[in-house]
Amino acid sequence: MCGIGGEFRLDGAPPDLAALERMLPVLSSRGPDGEGRWQHGNAALVHRRLRIIDLSDTGAQPMVDPELGLALVFNGCVYNYRELRDELTAAGYTFRSTSDTEVILKAYHRWGTACVERFYGMFAFALVELATRTLVLARDRLGIKPLYLAETPGRIRFASTLPALLAAGDVDTDLDPVALHHYMSFHSVVPPPRTILAGVRKLPPATVRTITADGRATDTVYWRPEFTRAAAPAMSAQEWQERIMAALRTAVRRRMVADVPVGVLLSGGLDSSLIVALLAEQGQTGLATFSIGFEAAAGESGDEFHYSDLVAREYDTDHHQIRIGAARFVPAVHEAIAAMSEPMVSHDCVAFHLLSEEVSQRITVVQSGQGADEIFAGYDWYPPMANAARADAVEAYARVFFDRRHDALAGHLAPEWMLDHDASLEFVTDHFGAPGADTALDAALRQDSLVMLVDDPVKRVDNMTMAWGLEARVPFLDHEVVELAAACPPALKLAQGGKGVLKAASRGIVPDEVIDRPKGYFPVPAIRHLSGPLLDDVRDALTARPARERGLFRKDYLEELLDAPNARRTTLGSNALWQLGLLELWLQRIGV
C-alpha cells in the first residue's frame, strides 16, 4: 500500500518536478517507509512506500525496467502475484524482486492493458512506456484504491489523494455545481469522474486510461457484473449458500498474502465476525482483532463490545478493545476531516480514523467487512424495491435513497447554485437504464455496488486507514464474490430481513447470537446528536467569512438548522446540519 503521484506533459515542456516534490509530504501517511522519484522525457513519477510485500529495497518504487522500457508507480496489492509470477517466469521473464509491483510491470509487457483482467486485488497504478511516451492509468474493479487527476492544457497530474494535487498547485478550486447537487441529493455521493472541485476528477473504477504523447486518451472498462440470473446456472438455496461460502473462504485466504502480520477490524457484526471465523477455520491462531466504542449520547449507545467480545472469545483472538472518551472526540473529528480526499458525511469516518490510529501502532495490515450490505442487500432501503416494477425502479430508488429531491433542494441551496435540471435523477436513470439488472432490486444493487459503495464506504475506509499507514483489505469485495452475489436471486438476499443467503450460509460457522442480532452501524452518537464544542465548530464554519462569500445555502434554511441542530434528518436518518457543516469544514480545511 502506498501513495502515488506524477505528471505527464503533452506540450513538450519537462515535468514540473518542484510541484511533484510538494505532493510527497501530503502522501507521506500513505507510505511512511520511504519515498522515490523518477523522471524521463515528458513524464515524472513520485512514490511513498508502505512495506507490505518484499520488505527489501528491491521492492522500492518508482520501479523501472530498462530492458522492457517501462516505469511504474503502484498503490495496492495483487493477491495472486505469486501465481502470475510463476506464469511469467515460465514464459521467459526474470525477476530481481519478490514484489507484486514487478509482476505488474512484466504482466503489462506480456499482455498489455488486458493484464488487469488477470489481477485479483485492489490497485491504482500509473505506468509509462518510455519508447512511445505513453501513460497508462488503471484502477481496480471496485475502486478500492483511488486515483485523482488534475488536467490543464498541456499537462496531466495524478495522485492518490485530492489534497496532494492541491499541494502541487495550479488547480481550479471552484466548486462543481453538478457535484454539489449530487452531494446534497445523492446521499453525499459524488460519482466519478466528478469531485466537488471543478479542477479535479477521478478515474472511474474498472477503467484503464491510455494517454498518448499527443494527448489522445482512450478508456477501457474491463469489468461490469450483469446482475442477471443468466450469469449463473439454476441452483437451490443450499447450493447458493455453499458457493458463496466457498468464494468467501477463498477471498479471506487471498487477503492473508503479506510479509507482515494481518489482523481484522472486528465490529461484532456478521460481516467482520465471519472473516474472523473463516480465518480461524483456516488455521489462523493468535489473530489480532480490534474494536472501538464511544461514550453514549442522547440515550444512544456508542459501542457494540458485547458482540465483538463474544466473537473474540469464540475464536480465541488477540483482541483489543478501544474506548474513546469525549475529550478525544472533537479533535479526532477535525483530524478525520483533514484525512478526507473528498467531503464524506458518514460519522463512521471518525470511528475508522480513531480505530486506525490505534491499530497502526500494533499492525500494518487488516481485513475489514465493508461491502457485504451493498452486495447482499443488507440495508433497509432494499426491501421497498422488491415489489417495484422494473419500469418504476428509478423512482422507487430515489424515494428511499435520495436525501433531497430536486424540488426540495430549491429551498435549501442558494438560487445561484441551483441547477435547472435534476442531475442526480438523470445519473441514476442512465445507470438503471443500462443493459442487465433483471429487476428493480437488481438495478438498485448494481447502482450501490458500482457507485455508492465506491464513493462512500470504500473511500471512507481507504482514507481513514491510510491516514495512519494502515492497509485495509476487503474480502467481500473480491470480484468473484461480487459476481456471485450479483447473480444470486434477489429473494435469497432479502430473506431474514436482508443478507439472508449470507446469514444462512454462516450458520454453524458464526455464533447464532451474532447472526440474529439487530443490524448495527459504527455508532458515533456525538455526530448524530450535535451539541457542545462540535456544534460550536459546525456553527462557526457555516457562519465564517469563507462560507458567507461562497453562499451555498439559503439563509433561512441554515438558520432553521442552527436553531434546531438535531431536528432535521435526511431520508436515511443522517443529521442534515452535519451534512452542511461537514462540507464547509472540509472546504475550509483544504483552503478553498
Automatic annotation (TrEMBL):
It holds the Pfam family GATase_7. The keyword Nucleotide-binding applies. GO terms for biological process: asparagine biosynthetic process. It catalyses: L-aspartate + L-glutamine + ATP + H2O = L-asparagine + L-glutamate + AMP + diphosphate + H(+). L-glutamine binds at residue 100. ATP binds at residues 265, 292, 368-369. This is asparagine synthase (glutamine-hydrolyzing). It comes from Micromonospora orduensis. The lineage of its organism: Bacteria, Bacillati, Actinomycetota, Actinomycetes, Micromonosporales.
